[in-house]
């Protein structure tokens, strides 16, 4: 019986990794479609979101079944309840990748507002945070999880900087306004993606140490 | 033993209702601080968010304890796993109320851009959705839950309309830009609050009917 339970936990772990890699790809393609002005790629990000939604439903069902049939305790129970929170975060990240892609389409119909530097940099950090938060989860690595949480403030600062810079473009010429607004929202979406990675990293600490660090960011230094 | 379990479920239900009413109040005060240009009220929304965070942690812990100690089945199991998702949605709504309040403060330092009509209307609908989604949850009322889901498209349409109208203000005068951007984000935050209410309403259908309607909005008419 226990061996069967371990196998099922293994399946759950693999499904989460698969879902994370689909979401990582969606974020990566959304940003690529922006950088390379590739509207076909942007459309494909929107089309592929259903896959993320289906994985969320499947994993959620698997978690509820495991709770019902195996009545897990301690670390296994925390793992399963956290898995449900993690899928939720991954699903939102998938939606945010779609939101980015949806803004890339109108952006690509006009000349580029400015060479993009900070947004791709922010995207790179956010993508690394997604990857690392899932790696931390798979390997129960709280040191890596902690590093993810710490990078969140860099992303927040970049979002702020991008917001201010785009405002100057808007002031300069009304013809820049629509494009600048789209870029502002893209920046905000990336910032939210980083937040969701931080949530996942916080779940990792909870699974491993049974310590809740959510809403307790000032305590992370104590980990 | 069972009577004790029922009591515990009652406590969980009351805690969720309490959390929902704190969040409702935060949203209501955030919008009031915008309409009445009351920066003190906006600051108080930001200050009170900790209460929402604490309630989320408390309810989550209670859910995990119930899963561990009572090993619930069927509708009770769905109720508890949904409760964890509902707190997560409520916590995000609390954050969004804070995000609104944070933008009210700089807005109030300048003259009003325009008489606000659509944003308060959108806020009213969003607040009703929050209230109704929680009422639907408390009373296991799938008809009310369905009505919440259906109102989501009205909020989306209003957000779109507000976005377009604010663009015209930005084009007209660069001096309007910063205020219009803040209002755009406030509108987007309200739209997200409505989305979270919809998520809660979808959980209600799941608890009652064991039917997942999430990501399956076209199937709602079949309920």
TrEMBL record, chains A, B:
Chief place of localization: cytoplasm
SUPFAM superfamilies, sorted: PhoU-like (SSF109755)
Superkingdom of this protein's organism: Bacteria
The PhoU domain, residue ranges: 17-104, 122-204
Alphabetically ordered keywords of this record: Cytoplasm, Phosphate transport, Transport
Subcellular location, record wording: Cytoplasm
Residue intervals passing through the bilayer: none
GO biological process, one term: intracellular phosphate ion homeostasis
InterPro entries xrefs: PhoU, PhoU-like_sf, PhoU_dom
GO cellular component, one term: cytoplasm
Subunit structure comment from the entry: Homodimer.
NCBIfam families xrefs: phoU_full
Function field: Plays a role in the regulation of phosphate uptake.
Family: Belongs to the PhoU family.
Name this protein carries in UniProt: Phosphate-specific transport system accessory protein PhoU
Gene this chain is encoded by: phoU_2
